[in-house]
Every structure is written in C-alpha cells, then in structure tokens.
Write a structure and sequence with these properties.
With about 220 residues, the chain is of the alpha+beta class. Helix 3 crosses helix 4. It has a 6-stranded mixed sheet with strand order 1-5-8-9-6-7. It is built from 5 helices and 9 strands. The longest helix has 17 residues. It is about 25% helix and about 20% strand. A hairpin with a 7-residue loop joins strand 3 and strand 4. It has a single domain, classed as Rossmann fold, CATH 3.40.50.
Length: about 220
C-alpha cells in the first residue's frame, strides 16, 4: 500500500485490488465506528489489517490531482477504506449519497486527492468466492467487476457500473435455483430457510461526492 502511493503526483491514477478474506474486530482504539467494529482484510501471511491502517496508508497520502480506485472483494468490506461518503442505489435505481463520516470526527480524507472504493458487500455481509474455473478462480465481486467494467460496449458511468455489478451478482446467486430440482415441498422449505433477499450488496464509497450518473468510470 505504501509503495503504491509513494511519490504520487497530480495526474496519477492508482489501482488497489484485494480479493481474499475479510473480517471485523472490535474498535478498541479511536471510537470512530458507528457499529463499534473495525473492518479488516486478512493478508496471506496471517493476522489482519484494520480499516484505520488502510486509510492511513492508502487514502490520506493522496495529493491533489491523484485518483485511487480500490476494489475490495472480501467479506465485511463495505467501508473498509473508512471513506466519508457512501453511495447507495435505491429500489428505483437512483443513487443516494449517505454521510458515513467517523462519529468521533476523525480526519479520514486524502491530502487533496480522491479515493473511490468498490466493495463486494456491506459491512455486515459475507462475499461469495469460488467463481470462475479451476484455472482462474476468483471472488464474485472480482468476476462481476471485470465483466461490467471491461466487457461493456461503452465506458459505463459509475451508476451503470454499480448497477451491472449488482445485476451480475443477483444472476449468479439466482443460479442457486438448482435447489428447485428438489421435490416441491422441500424446495419451498429450503427457500424459507435461505434468505435470497440477503444477497451481497456491492458498495461504492468515496472521499468526495460526485455525479455518479454523469461521470464515467475510468482507470
């Protein structure tokens, strides 16, 4: 993370992608979390990295004119960069910005630059992994993001990108309709137990609010 942002200057476009395990731990340090929990990512060599540490390493060093896109494909990843603005898609597909600033007033913004996070699910949800074939396995957000961003016929706006990612995730989860190959009474029972409405919800958060309906996604 520090290598990525070191020496960044105006005009730079930075990308940080993590696909792996994520979790939550009690916020015992600064009291900046509304739910009292820090979000984490888990590196391959063990332990975890808190969202406070990620924000300090990746976000705050960004100087004016630098843009960082982070794609975090992990459980509990909704606000793992601790960015103050969260964009939600309402049922009618329209975006709505929500204030997600730290409750203790802690400074989490860049030094003039912009950070944008696309995460696989909300802070309280789990992300699906194991998508793809044996040669190229990947998490569901990674699969959906690559499909939506790089196989689109034209450069999508951020709303179009988020909506397409969401649609692909819903479609892949709908493949679990294999359940309905079970006998009808058992299928009905399983559907009551399995909450299909709880499918992971991709998130977009940013250090600054911007017109996600007009601005096109560009790395």
């Amino acid at each position: 993370m520090r290598w990525l942002v070191y020496g960044c200057k105006s005009g730079d476009s930075l990308v940080f992608h993590f696909s792996g395990h994520g979790g939550q731990v009690r916020d015992e340090d600064d009291g900046d979390e509304l739910d009292g929990k820090d979000e984490t990512i888990c590196p391959v060599d063990g332990g975890y990295i808190r969202d406070d540490e990620i924000n300090e390493a990746l976000v705050r060093p960004l100087v004016h004119g630098v843009t960082l896109h982070a794609i975090i494909d992990a459980c509990h990843s909704g606000t793992v960069l601790d960015l103050p603005n969260l964009c939600k898609l309402k049922k009618n597909g329209q975006p709505e910005w929500k204030n997600h600033s730290p409750v203790n007033g802690a400074w989490k913004n860049p030094s003039g630059g912009q950070a944008i996070l696309i995460s696989g699910c909300t802070d309280s949800q789990l992300s699906t992994d194991g998508i793809g074939d044996e040669q190229l396995p990947m998490g569901l957000l990674t699969y959906s993001f690559v499909t939506a961003a790089f196989f689109a016929r034209q450069m999508p706006t951020y709303v179009q990108l988020l909506a397409t990612i969401k649609a692909i995730i819903l479609e892949r989860n709908a493949d679990s309709r294999i359940i309905c190959k079970l006998p009808a009474p058992l299928c009905s029972l399983v559907r009551k137990v399995v909450n299909f409405s709880g499918v992971q919800e991709p998130q977009l958060s940013s250090s600054h609010k911007f017109d996600v309906n007009r601005e096109h996604f560009l790395l």
